[in-house]
Amino acid sequence: MSDKVDNSQLSAQPQLGAALSAFSCVDGMLCIGGKTPAQISAMLDAEVFYAYDREALQCKVQRLRHMLPATVKLHYAVKANPYGPVVRQMASLVDGMDVASRRELLLALQSGMPASHISFAGPGKTDSELAAAIAAGCVVHLESATEMRRLQRLCLTANTTAQVALRINPEFELKGSGMKMAGGAKAFGIDQSQVFALLDEVQQGPLQLIGFHLYCGSQNLHADAILQSQRQSLQLLTQLRPLCPDLRFFNLGGGFGVPYFPADKPLDLDAVGAGMHGLLNEFAATIAGLEIVLELGRYLVADAGVYLSRVIDIKTSHGSTFVVTNGGLHHHLANSGNFGQVVRRNYPVLLANKLNQPVAGPLQVVGPLCTPLDVLADKVLLPEPDIGDWFAVLQSGAYGASASPQGFLSHGAVAEILL
């Protein structure tokens, strides 16, 4: 990152420095993949778009590989960003992919990722999705006894076999997660107390049990909590492995978080890496001969994406300045507050053509939709705005376009590009 970002902008948004580190700045202008917003706009013939930086994706994976034990396999969770060029880029960087729908399965296959390195998870797979997984030859992550028996019947009908993993809902949770996906009553996985009773059944007939999968939570910024969850997972593996002679991998899940909001501190990757080195040495006998998988989505791609729109109006109301852009919650639901979450907090945002200018008074940045929920930034300190400025939302590479209601109020779809 160039040194031409005005320090008052970095002071006004503490999370902005880390978010900007993936990009360059030339004469006060944000560049993504070496291109200015105006250049990207000309290429796309669009003024509202997501731009993803190829080099930022590469750097994130390289840093992870440098810090983590060399034996750990990285899998990309396609749901985080299913944009085709991003999926193909990630296929060249990671060891496997995790999908949760037939369309994601096709994206992963068409990226060149071998089917045997693709896992299909999700608590409500239909028979047609299971049949697609069988035909493709990917690994099916089973989330219930009923799903296991349906897959067995489909294999017998097709006179074929399938490789499977059992997704476990363990008794413990990942503390401090944005979303807890394990511990207690959950839609995901098979309760730990039920898994042992299913081991004989799943290892007979047309299914081959080759792995276990635990995903305890997401968006976690606490290294100690992540490592504690991994320790508990490996302790559970010590009980399971002697009963599963054909086991090939153990998926520890992911949950690595991204700092979106002012109070967020980046995950201490050094601590996670050092802790995982220690854990894998401690459990060396348990994991001997197994692949240890980390399944990451948001953490791999969030930093590399920027959502950009154009300022189309500026007005005042009762002493507040409103900056109106042509982009909004229909394209970036998470940034807007997910249709009115109780506490709305700002993502790191900026005027992409004014990085070298000092901040002015607080601004309300809103979109064009006819709803008061269409808020892009609330009382944020930015440089003095002008019509035509480029408004940018950083940390937008994950759960952006595909996780937003693009048909809402019929304003049209958002463009995307990988540079």
Q: Which descriptors apply to this entry?
A:
single chain; 419 residues; alpha/beta; Lyase, Ornithine Decarboxylase, Chain A, domain 1; TIM Barrel; 2 domains; eight-stranded mixed beta sheet; eight-stranded parallel β-barrel; 14 helices; 21 strands; elongated
Characterise this structure.
By secondary structure, the chain is α/β, with parallel strands linked by helices. The protein folds into 2 domains: 7-53 and 303-418, Beta Barrel (Lyase, Ornithine Decarboxylase, Chain A, domain 1), CATH 2.40.37; 82-296, Alanine racemase (TIM Barrel), CATH 3.20.20. Helices cover 31% and strands 24% of the residues. It has 14 helices and 21 strands. Strands 3, 15, 16, 17, 18, 19, 20 and 21 form an 8-stranded mixed β-sheet that branches. The longest helix is centred in the middle third of the chain and has 18 residues, at 223-240. The radius of gyration is 23 Å and the shape is elongated. The model has no long low-confidence stretch (mean pLDDT 92).
Please render the helix and strand layout as text.
Layout: H1 7-12, H2 16-20, E1 24-26, E2 29-31, H3 37-44, E3 49-52, H4 54-67, E4 72-77, H5 84-91, E5 96-99, H6 102-110, E6 118-120, H7 127-136, E7 139-142, H8 145-158, E8 162-169, E9 179-180, E10 190-191, H9 192-202, E11 207-213, E12 217-218, H10 223-240, E13 249-251, H11 269-282, H12 284-287, E14 291-296, H13 298-301, E15 305-317, E16 320-325, H14 333-336, E17 349-351, E18 362-366, E19 375-381, E20 390-393, E21 415-418
